[in-house]
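Problem 12. The chain below contains 209 residues. Write out its predicted structure in token notation.
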Amino acid sequence: MQVPLEITYNHVSQSDWIDEYIKERAEHLDNMCDNLISCRVTIEREQHSQHTGNLYRAQVEVSLPPKKHLVGDKKGVVEDMHVQLRPIIRKAFEAVEKQLKKETARRRGDVKQHENSYESHAFVVRLFPDEDYGFIKSPIDGQEYYFHRNAVLHDDFERLHPGTQVRFEAEMGEKGPQASTVQIIDKPGVRVPEEGEEAIEQPDDWKKQ
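Solution.
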């Protein structure tokens, strides 16, 4: 890893056992990829939560050349830090590991570049800014994916509008399909397909959402 591991605590006291566990998981990521640039991990307790217990979030973000970011984000209610926080951290790292395996395979040529070329593209169809989440929809099979503000790269959540085209990583969440590593491609009607590339049509019903 080119940049030292970065661990940030928000509304959570620093803990040696958390640090050690994160270091172990980060070393595993580093061993999976020989050109990992950085790994940033955030552990935070959400304030003003409506849950009966304390809602904690673990976010893992790694960067690869050139300007590739992978993000794993998991939440859970924690009453016993030693028992319940570790699985949340583990699941966030596992989400990144899954993306990293796919990206590594693609770069090695194990997966052809044109295969599933449209699976990672979608359009924003619904947004709930006050609640920090929204939904995107695949123009190929009509599948919708939930995404949270924290899954949008470069803090670009505020730039999203219905019809915005995005690139994302799909995964199965606790309540169904969800998107991580959401990255804006363009605004509606702006992007001109590159030579040899087919245009991705917007869903017919996105304006109705």
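Discussion. The first strand starts at residue 6 and ends at 10. Students who got a different answer should revisit the alignment rule from Section 12.3.
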